[in-house]
Amino acid sequence: MFLAPVFAIGVLMSLVSPPPAQAPRPATTPQAAAVGEAAPSFDYVSADFYRRRLSDLTAQGNVLLVLGGSDAQLLELERQQPSLQRAGIVAVAVSDEDDDQAWQTTQRLGLTFSLLSDPGRVIAGAYGCRDPRTRALATGWFVVDREGRVRGSGRGTCGPQGWLAIVNETLGTPELSAAGGR
Question: HSE (CB half, 13 Å, CA atoms) of 115?
């Protein structure tokens, strides 16, 4: 099964409603989207200028959402992209760059997966990947299933096991090797 990647450099249009005003809390890491719960939805404008949602991505397959990856991490995700596609996984990265910078990054690195622009770090905040003091984007990953539920998450990048192994373990699916065999 081949899934064409949704190639998008998007402007974040809206997100789930902001929480009601609360008393200030100590600076701690925001709560990440919880495993088993509905993933925070987000809208973006795709490269074809259509307004899209997280549900448009999950309609194509399980989603690997990577937030705040460095160039090296984005290149590793690109290297593993063919294996992820063969397994029916839609890889999407979120950057805090503006649209122009994200487009330049996509071109410079030759990325074939979607790199969403989130300069206000709204998506990052909804997924708990924003430092509460500096508001800097923190690197993290989430696996969202076809029903829109968070099935797994972590901080940092994939490590030596690779993204496909993380997704397989998270979803409990049979191991699909990088070469495409089972």
Answer: 29
